[in-house]
């Protein structure tokens, strides 16, 4: 899984029928301190995450292992909102 | 999923029989503002996208979860045309 | 899928029994104009491609969706020979 | 599989129900000598690994092939703690 | 598939039960001439390869398509030892 920050939202009218009602958020991978690195990607939100939240995303066929994404053409899912990260014994991120 | 722009088309006579009748478009990943980054790849179009459109593509086994791509040797599918992107509360892309 | 050019061949005597009789070609990803970029990889040829051909390759579990690669330990397949590529309305590659 | 070092832990209250009770560790890929390289990622621990341990992680659908991760939305698993690494005939890492 | 050179071995006591008896080798991807490039990764050996051998590795779910790796939490397998590589009509590598 990747640690990622939610940075935005996408709106689409024309889409596969299995995507109707799904919330597709724009996220960017972060390092272990919550700082964004790398290119943005889009993930289905299954945990009511919001812009600014630090989340975990799961990719590939594993992204279809939630009840909301089963048999759906999606390759990334947000399946957790991060409360805190601890690195080498120190808390380096805590959700405000 | 990746945000991508459709930049072209491919034509092939010799191909796997399951690819007959499929439209294979050349796309390039973009950043969250719709600017192309990275190398081109090819995706099956399932939503009648056209050159210039900003789309969402889905990769891997998830690309076979549409009715048009089931059991087909394809690893990327266009399953949505993007209307608009919003980042940090501002609309940064709107389809013209 | 990736646009790739066939650059060579591999020969192996010791291999998984499911690979017997398979042609394993060395390819390199190209950009949308057919110019090679990136590292080489090896793909099973299912369309009688030859060195110099521009082809499409499909990766991951999708590479096992052809009749020749079903249930086989291969993660990349050549399933199309490219005739032409068109970018932004111009033909940028045509097979000679 | 990747050689990786465990560098931290994640805490989440809001998460997919299948993740309850799972330990999600932050790891970083290392080179063959155990030196960290690249960005951090998060893997489910199935072997009671701890911060500082050098481990093997397995990605993608293969990460769901342990009894603890079956049918779970996770794409990386720690399924081995490394005792030692030998490169070109020399022991280059030994667990202390 | 990737062309890779076997550079070492891993030893683990604590591991998933399905990994018992499996030989896990450290490999590095090579270019088409057999020169190592990129970071090391670990693959299950199914063809009795040894340190120094040039091999083919297969990744992802396809790595579980050999009799030795079926249903096992591994995402890379060595399923061929390379005898020779030919690029643009010239033999560029031959096993000694």
From TrEMBL, chains A, B, C, D, E:
Q: Give the source's domain of life in one word.
A: Bacteria
Q: Which CDD domains match?
A: EutN_CcmL
Its localization reads: Carboxysome
Keywords attached to this entry: Bacterial microcompartment, Carboxysome
- UniProt cross-references to InterPro entries, sorted A to Z: EutN_CcmL, EutN_CcmL_sf
One CC-aspect GO term: carboxysome
Q: Name one Pfam family in it.
A: EutN_CcmL
Q: Where the protein is mainly located, per its record?
A: other
**Classification via PANTHER family:** BACTERIAL MICROCOMPARTMENT SHELL VERTEX PROTEIN EUTN, ETHANOLAMINE UTILIZATION PROTEIN EUTN
Q: What is this protein called?
A: Carboxysome shell protein
């Amino acid at each position: 899984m990747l640690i990622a920050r939610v940075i935005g939202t996408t709106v689409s009218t024309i889409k596969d029928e299995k995507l109707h009602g799904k919330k597709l958020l724009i996220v960017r991978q972060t390092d272990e301190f919550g700082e964004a690195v790398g290119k943005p990607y889009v993930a289905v939100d299954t945990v009511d995450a919001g812009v600014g939240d630090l989340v975990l995303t799961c990719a590939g066929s594993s992204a279809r292992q939630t009840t909301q994404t089963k048999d759906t053409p999606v390759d990334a899912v947000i399946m957790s909102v991060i409360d805190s990260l601890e690195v080498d014994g120190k808390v380096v991120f805590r959700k405000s």
